[in-house]
Write a structure and sequence with these properties.
- It is a single chain.
- With 125 residues, this protein is α+β, with helices and mostly antiparallel strands.
- Helix content is 54%, strand content 16%.
- It has a 3-stranded antiparallel sheet with strand order 3-5-4.
- The termini are far apart.
Length: 125
């Protein structure tokens, strides 16, 4: 069992729906989170630049995911008082700390993509 002691002093279990670790893991494992963090790894981007960079993401999902990342402390949002308003997103120090595990995951996928695609083709038969 994967347990730890939460800041409340009570033991938590990552498999429990109310575990704070599971909640953050759910956010990080979200469909768009890794792509957003990876896109911001090279520096600050405007909302519209993020939307254009990440093909297929809807305005609603980008906004929702950015809010979760901001609430979790991975991203900072800066609104510039211009007309129209300009909104920039930047990784925090905590957000930058995710770059290494994300790079490792991407490398693993790139190393194993042929096997994964072969398995998918086999499953489709």
């Amino acid at each position: 069992m994967s347990t730890f002691v939460a800041s409340s002093g009570l033991p938590s279990d990552v498999y429990s729906a109310k575990c704070p670790t599971r909640e953050v893991l759910d956010h990080i494992a979200g469909k768009w989170t890794v792509l957003i963090i990876d896109a911001l790894a090279d520096g600050t981007l405007r909302y519209t630049d993020l939307r254009h960079r990440i093909e297929g993401i809807s305005q609603k999902m980008l906004t929702q995911t950015l809010r979760q990342l901001e609430n979790d402390g991975f991203v900072t949002r800066t609104v510039h008082p211009t007309v129209p308003p300009r909104v920039d997103y930047t990784l925090t120090e905590l957000g930058h700390s995710l770059r290494t595990p994300i790079a490792a995951l991407r490398e693993w996928i790139e190393t194993n993509i042929n096997q994964i695609e072969a398995a998918r083709r086999g499953a489709a038969l």
